[in-house]
Design brief:
Layout lengths: L1 H15 L17 H25 L1 H23 L4 H4 L10 H28 L14 H31 L4 H15 L6 H18 L2 H22 L14 H24 L20 H21 L7
Length: 326
């Protein structure tokens, strides 16, 4: 963990000097930073929208598998090689210490429940305005399909998406500060999932995973968290019988969501406290000067936001039946 801290301290020093002319061998320009991470992100985002969407339309399970292992993971591995980083230190590929496992499990369960309550509350409000939920993921119909979903959505996504976001994009931005890196990379993570209705919950998911990775000093903590989150989501989807069941939300009162919110908040607080006590570093919020990196709004982000808004408008148009009048 100390080697990881030294690497990022060195990265901060390099970023502070990035405005100086480079009279050396050019290694400074090869340092991973906000700009290089944003270009990587936009490249993967466009591939996901174009190629990933086509693959998943042709066959959902195979398409999801190829999306993770062909579209998402290879660019992250190329980025490590392109910038010649120490992969273990840069991506925090240190083994996860077993003492962190209880906190990771508690946080994964609590924040999944919290995010479900937030998403359900938002969906209820939108349904009162006439919105009809869309089937973003077809529910598994058989036990065999459920197992395939676990391998594709929980295991594959847990590994590949963490390698890209918390193993590549997050550390590239840490020269701008830990909190700005967490906030901005989590925002990119939320945009990447291309869902207006799940934007808030996905942002929270990314932020908590980033905290877990930094506090534990291991990307594998984030991988396990991500796998657990998606495993619970897939299991819930299978047990509930799919998105068709959400039609029953129309008859659900709001107060049960408040009751679920209480244990979710208690578990989230307990998990964060446990993680903080076990971690060998001071609180992340100490000395925070800003919440976003300097020069965070550039052309890659602008293109990403435009693409997300176009997809969000399509999602809302279908859900509210705006195309029915055509």
């Amino acid at each position: 963990m100390e080697d990881n801290k030294n690497y990022h301290d060195h990265q901060v020093a390099e970023v502070k000097r990035e405005g100086e002319p480079d009279h050396g061998s050019g290694l400074l320009s090869a340092e991973p930073n906000l700009n290089s991470a944003m270009r990587l992100y936009l490249f993967v985002f466009i591939l996901l929208l174009v190629l990933g969407s086509i693959l998943q339309i042709l066959h959902f399970e195979v398409g999801m598998f190829l999306t993770q292992w062909v579209i998402i993971l290879p660019p992250a591995l190329w980025y490590w090689r392109r910038h010649n980083v120490d992969r273990v230190s840069f991506a925090r590929l240190h083994p996860l210490q077993l003492r962190f496992l209880p906190a990771v499990v508690i946080l994964a369960a609590s924040f999944w429940l919290l995010n479900m309550v937030i998403a359900a509350g938002l969906m209820l409000g939108m349904m009162e305005l006439g919105y009809q939920p869309l089937e973003s993921i077809p529910p598994p119909d058989t036990l065999g399909q459920y197992i395939i979903y676990i391998l594709v959505i929980a295991v594959s996504a847990g590994i590949c998406e963490e390698m890209l976001f918390r193993g590549t994009i997050l550390p590239s931005m840490e020269g701008e500060g830990i909190i700005p890196a967490i906030v901005f990379s989590s925002f990119l993570f939320a945009l990447y999932h291309i869902s207006f209705t799940n934007l808030i919950s996905t942002f929270m998911l990314g932020a908590v995973i980033a905290v877990v990775v930094i506090k534990t000093g291991s990307l594998w903590g984030g991988v396990i968290y991500h796998m657990l989150n998606n495993f619970v989501a897939v299991t819930y989807l299978y047990a509930a019988g799919g998105i068709e069941k959400t039609a029953e939300l129309e008859t659900v009162e709001h107060w049960p969501l408040v009751l679920l919110l209480v244990p979710a908040l208690i578990g989230a607080y307990a998990g964060l406290r446990m993680l903080h006590r076990q971690a060998d570093r001071e609180p992340l919020l100490n000395g925070v000067r800003r919440w976003l990196p300097k020069n965070w709004f550039g052309w890659p982000l602008l293109i990403g936001i435009i693409l997300f808004l176009l997809m969000a408008m399509l999602e809302l148009a279908i859900g509210f039946g705006w195309f029915d009048i055509l």
